[in-house]
Design goal:
Oligomer: single chain
Distance between the termini: 75 Å
Structural class: alpha+beta
Shape: elongated
Length: 291
């Protein structure tokens, strides 16, 4: 008798970054569906991050007939389903079962174009549908897709929690580690549960989201001769220096698109993300362009 093995998506984690998805001043969130899809088609999280399960989670996946499918914008975990019901996991999933995925940095410039404080580089970020027992109740839960809420410093674990988490990882798992994604079958908020009250997979399945906002900087143009600056220009003299001009407002760093910054009717170039200069005293960041 012929039979087939059927799998169903259990949950999905989208990882998005507005440095790659925005286009100049055009924000991804405000684009129409056609333009959004065009931006997503060229987006690949694997260029700047490595997302993979911990060794322990891989064992749990194998033991529960679950498989991971890597995507350009994250990952999906699929479950073998029972013949008695299309959305019943073939192997029952305990409420406290969890899946942990490593977020490892692949791009040394990640913090340059990501709107996170540089002083937190090296600390451990944590994205989960449950709060760790050692963390305060105000610690944020992972977002659902469409929340459009960017990652911030509230997702950083305390030193004690970070050390406890790191002690469970292998040496290679700790390499270039930015954060952890941990998804429990049952969460601290019923809206974030993987399965329903009957332990069936939700239809549609849960899609969580980690959204990084792109950094905004003041653009500094350094000339080798004095410049004449008018009020209508998009730049001004920095501390009265006619050879050093800065934008009047912070401008977003994006991989694609062009932002018009004019000086006497001429457009100035946009900076790349290879170098930023922080002013920690005034909480500002500068991008320098030599003209």
């Amino acid at each position: 008798m012929a039979f087939s093995v059927k799998y169903m998506a259990l949950f999905n984690v989208n990882i998005l970054h507005n440095y790659f998805l925005n286009k100049g001043l055009d924000e991804f969130i405000s684009m129409n569906e056609t333009d959004k899809n065009k931006q997503l088609d060229s987006f690949d999280v694997n260029v700047f991050l490595n997302i993979r399960p911990t060794r322990k989670t891989q064992q749990e996946l194998n033991g529960h007939n679950l498989v991971i499918k890597a995507l350009n914008n994250g990952l999906t975990v699929w479950s073998k389903v029972s013949e008695s019901g299309n959305n019943i996991p073939f192997i029952s999933l305990d409420d406290d079962l969890c899946f942990t995925f490593l977020i490892q940095l692949k791009d040394a410039e990640f913090y340059n174009y990501t709107n996170l404080k540089l002083e937190n580089a090296g600390k451990l970020y944590y994205f989960s549908n449950r709060i760790l027992a050692a963390e305060p109740g105000s610690f944020p839960l992972i977002n659902i897709s469409g929340d459009n809420s960017g990652v911030n410093e509230n997702f950083v674990l305390s030193e004690a929690s970070a050390n406890a988490e790191l002690s469970e990882l292998t040496t290679s798992e700790k390499d270039n580690l930015f954060g952890l994604i941990r998804i429990f079958v049952k969460s601290d908020n019923i809206s974030l549960d993987i399965t329903d009250a009957q332990n069936k997979i939700h239809i549609p399945f849960k899609t969580y989201e980690i959204l990084f906002n792109n950094r905004k900087t003041i653009w500094r143009y350094i000339f080798n001769a004095d410049q004449k600056v008018k009020n209508k220009d998009d730049v001004k003299k920095e501390d009265g220096n006619a050879q050093q001009l800065i934008t009047k407002t912070e401008q977003p760093l994006t991989q694609k698109g062009f932002i018009s910054i004019e000086l006497d009717g001429n457009e100035l170039p946009n900076p790349n993300a290879r170098l930023i200069k922080p002013d920690t005293i005034n909480n500002k960041y500068y991008s320098e362009i030599y003209m």
